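Researcher: Next entry in the queue.
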Amino acid sequence: MLTSRVSLDAFPWTRVSWVFLQVAQEKQCEEETAGRRELLARLKDDMEVLGKSIGAERRTAKRLAQDQAAAAGGTSDGMPQVLDYVAQKAEMFDLASVLKTWEKKVAIMEMAAKRVRSLKRSQREQQRQGTMGR
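Model: Structure for this entry, 134 residues:
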């Protein structure tokens, strides 16, 4: 059984529509990629600021704990205060929570970037196939 394949040359308006569609999709992907890159850059800046803030807070807390220990004279047997341990543990849990949140944000951004790269790659392949079919 013979089958005939209709080429796009028979319908020039179809080729033009297809080209417009491809160009529009590529432009949309490029805009989405640019937007996500900007978001990623902002997230990296936020992470840097947060890291600096956490470091400053740790130094402040350490200095405060040292000042309190010096003012209270510490315990008689040289053991740290129980409240210092509780405060340190609370800060550790808070920081772990913040870290998990940022890790989730980074994972989401990595997945989005991977998706955009995949879309762009598939569009390039479609364009190559379209140009090779001529």
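Model: The two ends are 25 Å apart (CA to CA).
Researcher: Noted, moving on.
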